[in-house]
């Protein structure tokens, strides 16, 4: 929580961003974005009307991505625009506060799509893409430091939304819907600190490299029992002697 607050300190707004890309060339085929202004403490002040656009790639979508997203080559031929044209539209949507803006995604795959699309459309705005990369926040990485599953794996966006009681926005794998869920998750992550603390205790207990005396203390504390220095000293003796 403190790390996320530090990352957004002094910002005027966040852009919650979700991208869909082709199966093999990893070119952008659809983009969804939600602009949010921030309060001084990093919480969301206001969500603005959304931005969504289909993008015409140079390569085919691929069967897997088509089934996953429902986006077809015919749809992109009809409604898509080129990558070099969508970037100025996104920049206009962001507005005049680009220097006080950061871009929030779930994972790093969205950044890969932006980079790969530059390879296939080299006339697009490289400087703007570099600005997004430089001012990027991976919300998945922020949350996974404190919340994992019982096998110490990162939770998906959908499962994190369930944990924080964020209603899913259907259909899934629509870039705008996923961007909305990302914004809602960010908001709840700030509010529901009890969930974070409780799940973080489980993460600590499940860590492989936690010394046994410390793990014994954590288990007792999680069970609601008191632990004194004498208890800790006894755990140390049991480990050493």
Task: Please tell me about this protein's structure.
- By secondary structure, the protein is of the alpha/beta class.
- The chain has two domains: 2-194, Nucleotidyltransferase, domain 5; 197-240, no CATH class.
- The chain contains twelve helices and six strands.
- The chain has helices at residues 2-8, 63-69, 73-79, 83-94, 109-120, 126-134, 139-144, 157-163, 175-191, 193-206, 212-222, 229-240; strands at 13-21, 28-38, 44-47, 51-54, 101-105, 136-138.
- Strands 1, 2, 3, 4, 5 and 6 form a six-stranded mixed beta sheet that branches.
- Strand 2 and strand 3 (44-47) form a beta hairpin.
- Helix 5 (109-120) runs antiparallel to helix 6, helix 8 packs parallel to helix 9 and helix 11 packs antiparallel against helix 12.
- The longest helix has 17 residues, at 175-191.
- The radius of gyration is 22 Å and the shape is elongated.
- The two termini are 40 Å apart.
- The model has no long low-confidence stretch (mean pLDDT 95).
Are there runs of 5+ residues with pLDDT below 50, and where?
none
Number of helices: 12
Helix percentage range: 40-55%
CATH class of the largest domain, named Alpha Beta
Q: What form results from the Cα inertia axes?
A: elongated
Number of domains: 2
Topology diagram in text:
Layout lengths: L1 H7 L4 E9 L6 E11 L5 E4 L3 E4 L8 H7 L3 H7 L3 H12 L6 E5 L3 H12 L5 H9 L1 E3 H6 L12 H7 L11 H17 L1 H14 L5 H11 L6 H12 L1
Parallel strand pairs: 1-5, 5-6
Antiparallel strand pairs: 1-2, 2-3, 2-4
Helix pairs in contact: 5-6, 8-9, 11-12
């Amino acid at each position: 929580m403190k790390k996320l607050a530090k990352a957004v300190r002094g910002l005027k707004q966040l852009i919650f961003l979700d991208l869909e890309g082709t199966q093999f060339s990893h070119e952008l085929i659809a983009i969804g974005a939600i602009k949010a202004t921030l309060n001084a403490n990093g919480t969301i002040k206001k969500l603005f009307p959304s931005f969504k656009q289909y993008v015409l790639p140079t390569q085919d979508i691929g069967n897997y991505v088509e089934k996953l997203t429902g986006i077809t080559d015919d749809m992109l031929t009809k409604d898509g625009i080129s990558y070099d044209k969508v970037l100025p539209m996104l920049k206009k949507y962001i507005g005049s506060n680009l220097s006080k803006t950061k871009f929030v995604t779930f994972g790093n795959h969205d950044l890969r799509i932006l980079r790969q699309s530059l390879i296939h459309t080299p006339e697009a705005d490289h400087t703007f893409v570099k600005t997004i990369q430089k001012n990027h926040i991976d919300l998945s990485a922020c949350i996974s430091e404190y919340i994992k599953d019982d096998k110490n794996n990162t939770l998906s966006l959908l499962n994190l939304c369930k944990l924080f009681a964020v209603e899913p926005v259907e259909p899934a794998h629509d870039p705008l819907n996923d961007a909305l869920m990302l914004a809602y998750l960010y908001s709840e992550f700030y509010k529901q600190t009890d969930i974070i603390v409780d799940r973080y205790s489980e993460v600590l207990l499940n860590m492989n490299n936690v010394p046994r005396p410390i793990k014994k203390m954590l288990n007792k504390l999680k069970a609601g029992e008191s632990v004194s220095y004498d208890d800790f000293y006894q755990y140390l003796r049991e480990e050493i002697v």
